[in-house]
């Protein structure tokens, strides 16, 4: 049971780190006055790969 909790907390931690990292790209693009319409769009497409088949 302990290994399941460890894997769960690891996945949550990695997810938060990726979200913060990608948000940094978003903020950098906005500060550079680049046109940004969607945040996290491409990652979501990859997560929902079944809909793309």
Characteristic terms for this protein:
single chain; 53 residues; mainly alpha; 2 helices; 0% strand; elongated
How is this structure best described in words?
The chain has 2 helices and no strands. It has 53 residues and is mainly α. It has one domain (2-52). The longest helix has 30 residues, at 2-31. 0% of the residues are buried. The model has no long low-confidence stretch (mean pLDDT 81).
So how many helices?
A: 2
**Runs with pLDDT <50, length 5+?**
none
Helical percent range? 55-70%
Mean pLDDT: 81
**End-to-end C-alpha gap:** 35 Å
**Beta strand count:** 0
Assign the structural class, choosing from mainly alpha, mainly beta, alpha/beta, alpha+beta, or little secondary structure: mainly alpha
Radius of gyration: 15 Å
The profile of the biggest β sheet is: none
Order of helices and strands: HH
Domain tally: 1
Percent in strands: under 5%
Shape: elongated
Write the layout of secondary structure elements.
Layout: H1 2-31, H2 41-47
Please give a quick description of this structure.
The protein has helices spanning 2-31, 41-47. The chain is mostly helical.
């Amino acid at each position: 049971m302990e290994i399941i909790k460890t894997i769960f907390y690891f996945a949550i931690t990695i997810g938060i780190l990726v979200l913060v990292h990608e948000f940094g790209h978003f903020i950098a693009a906005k500060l550079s006055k680049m046109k940004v319409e969607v945040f996290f769009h491409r990652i979501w497409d990859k997560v929902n790969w079944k809909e793309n088949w």
